[in-house]
Amino acid sequence: xxxxxxxxxxxxxxxxxxxxxxxxxxxxxxxxxxxxxxxxxxxxxxxxxxxxxxxxxxxxxxxxxxxxxxxxxxxxxxxxxxxxxxxxxxxxxxxxxxxxxx
Length: 102
Description:
By secondary structure, the protein is mainly alpha-helical. The protein is built from 2 helices and 2 strands, in the order ααββ. The protein folds into 2 domains: 1-60; 62-102, no CATH class. It is 82% helix and 4% strand. Strand 1 and strand 2 (92-93) form a beta hairpin.
């Protein structure tokens, strides 16, 4: 067997191993994608069930829905105010993306 033949056989063996490794990786990625699809489907079903519950709640007790919405609005408003306070410098709001004070 010549040196060239050995080199080619070694190269073929390396390529076969690389192909095998890629097939394993591809299989793992496909499994991961299938798990993500399944999770996405579960989340869609959960979102629909929650929407249905909210819809029923809104029609059965609209006053409680309004109170809950007002409370959530206040909580979100306070969180936004806190974020603005944390990002302000000397009373000026600093843009995080540009660093420019406004």
